[in-house]
Each structure stands twice: as structure tokens, then as C-alpha cells.
Amino acid sequence: MTLNADRFFDPNPSVRAVARKLYQSVKNLPIISPHGHVDPNLFVENNPFPNPAELFLIPDHYIYRMLYSQGIPLESMGVRPLDGSSAETNAKKIWKLFGDNYYLFRGTPTGLWLNYEFSEVFGIKKRFSGSTAIEIYDEINEKLKLVKFRPRALFDRFNIAVLSTTDAATDALETHQKIRSSGWKGNIIPCFRPDGVTDMKAKNWKANIDLLTERSAIDVTSYSRFIQALENRRAFFKSLGAVSTDHGVSSPYTREFTKGEGERIFQRALMGQVTSEDAAQFTGHMLMEMARMSIEDGLVMQIHPGSDRNHNRVVYDKYGPDKGCDIPMQTEYTHNFKELLNKYGNDARLTVIVFTLDESTYARELAPLAGHYPAMKLGPPWWFHDSIEGMMRFRSMVTETAGIYNTAGFNDDTRAFVSIPARHDLSRRVDSNFLAGLVAKHIIDFDEAKEMIYDLANGLVKRAYRL
After folding, report:
1. Is 72 found in the same domain as 192?
2. Number of separate domains in the chain
3. What's the pTM?
4. pLDDT higher than threshold 90 for residue 232
5. Which of 9, 18, 182, 274 is the S-S candidate for 269 at Cβ 3.0 to 4.6 Å?
């Protein structure tokens, strides 16, 4: 297995030569990962990863969804049903199954990331397949026993300057406190995600409210106390280094309540009488409240709408969430986001980074909005569009209207820790290639492209997240 030095670059020699130079200027820059889902517990005890199957497969729903789409049962990948019934526990068998079906990932970003991980992180020289799977398993397994392949050592080797996790508003953040008190210098920070208490239809909402009471030491028996408790938790997150909030809403709908409206809906929810309409209205109002709080405390606001989460109810009911069953849906921003932007979007103290899974909105809605409102920035291509073609479509559809300076750079948004350098490398290559195309067409000059590629790799994300 060989990774071509010019991979992902345009075959046109005039573009490729420029892309190569641009990429070389940023390929070794530190990685800033301002949004993701890596488990911070990895870095507390700094234990070796158990085995290749648990390192590569278990945290990665991209792998689950592809294998499941071919009729491969989740149990055979080691996913145990919620009822406790049996699932495969032999890591080598799981790995062999993965190798037998690795061809499914040809041409996908998952395949490209995995090839990078095998080659660059673990030094594997053979192509991964069913026939080489066990040999590669054994080679990786031996390396995982070495100190240099432990989580903290890989964090340093990957040259990660900042890694943000995503944490519930009710999280005690004990793991982050332990990392800080350990003396290790790795910069791992939390991100405040309040969906479990702001979405009244969330599973265990009432239990989450009770936990919010416990964590904040504020008895959350009213809407006003609920707001106080959230402000209290945001301050706690900030004290441990948080720079952002994250909101995984189904719609970017925003609407401001009166205090009386908020109280009436909150009391209905406490009594278990909340309706779907109540919940949607309350979530829209809470986006307004979170924008207000962000202006006051400086936390950057991220909004991730447009995913029909756990679309496959059979899988969700049997195995739980995060098994690759989330599906993008059509999303509208111009009207849904208007109330928030009209009230807060002209205030430069706010930064709200908006993501989408609906590419049809890039040129029609998101680029014009971000190209006008000082508070709004566009997040990078997200999830299903975090790919070569997805990134190129994003740049092509957004740049002419919003430029690059109303975007927020790149974030990897991953649970799979060892994929982080692969994802950032792919992004830097694709952005280099995009800018090289502009140089070749004489739209920008090379010196401008060189400044722009630095900003796309590092500068924009630092400024957007105030790092």
C-alpha cells in the first residue's frame, strides 16, 4: 500500500504543481480540532488501546453504516443489543470480517482516512483486505502495546494544539479536571451541549432536569431558574477552558418567547404534558437564549441542524443511538434563522457558526446570510459532505458570495481519535487544490493563495473559535 504524494490534486499539471506548493506550506501546521466527539477518558489513565477492532471499528459509525447496508448484522461487529443478548466478542473475528468487506469503502472518504491511518500512523505496508487482515491485526496489536502508541503520545505525535470534546450541560467534567491536574500539557477542552435539557422531547428530559438541579445547585422548578442553571453551567464549562457551545437541533427555527410563555411550556413539561409543538417552540426560543448568553459570556455558538437522527427505528430500538442510522433532511435557513439574526446577528460580540446537511442551501441561503451578518460564520462541510467532492462543492458554491473569511476553517467532528490527522490532511489537500485552480484561472495570485491556505488550515479556525 502506497499513498501517492499528489493524492487528491487535479491531474492538470498547471493546477497540480501549485496545489503541491500550497499543501507543502501547511502540511505540518498544528492541528486545531475545535469540535469533535473523542472520549476524553482516553487521556486520563493513558492506557493502551485494547486491540485494533476497538480502536478502528467501535467508535466509528461510518464503518457500521456501510457494513450494515450490505446486510451484515451489527452483532457480528461486536455491537451488543440493548436487551443484553449475545454479540461477537472475538476481536480477530470482527477484524477479519472488516477486512473481508474493506472493498466496500473504495472511493469513500472513510476508505481514504483508513488508508492514511494504516500507512502513516501504523506504518502498514500491505493493502488491507480479507487475506491480509489477520497479519495486519497482529502488527497493529503489537504496536498498540508500545508507549509511543498510547493516546497521549499519539496526541503529541499528531501535533494537536487543541482538541475540543462535546459534553452534556449536566456533565460534571471530572475527566477534564483529571486531565488538567495530571500535569500533562495536552490541551483538551470541553464544549457545552445542552440538547438533553433544551429539547423537551429528549429521552430522559425530566431526569436531565433533575441532574441539572444537582450540578448547578439551583432548584430547577421554574423557567427562570432553568435559565439561571444553564448560565451557571456555562460559567463552569468556561472555567475549564470551553470556548464554544453546540446545538444539535433538527431545524434552525428561532422564535423568542415572553417569560410568561416560557414558564407555561416549562411547567407543562415538568408535569409530562408537553406537546411536540411545545417542544419545537421551546427549542427555537432556547436558540435565542443561547445567542444572548453567548454575547454575555463570549462562548462561540455552533448550530448543527438538519439530521433526522436514528431514522432506522428498528436499529435504534434494538441497539440504541449512534449506529449509523442518521439521515440528512431538507432544511431552510432564511426564514427559520431570521428572528435570531435580526436580534443578535448585527452584534460583532456574537459568533454563531452554522452547519448544514442540505447542500442546496449553500449558495441559495447560507453564503448570502454569512456574507452579510457580522455574527454569522459557515461551518465546514459536515458529516456526509466531509469528503473530497463535498469540500470542493462547498468551496465552489460559497466562496464567490461569502469569500473564505466568513467561513470557520475545518473541524474533524470525529469520535475516531486516530482518524484526526487523516481528516485534516485531506482537508488541507483539497483546499490547496481548490486555491490552485483559482491561481491557474488567474482569479487570485499565488501569494494570495499562500495566505489563504494558511487561513483555511489554521487562521480561520483560531479566529472563529477565539483560540
Report:
1. no
2. 2
3. 0.96
4. yes
5. 274
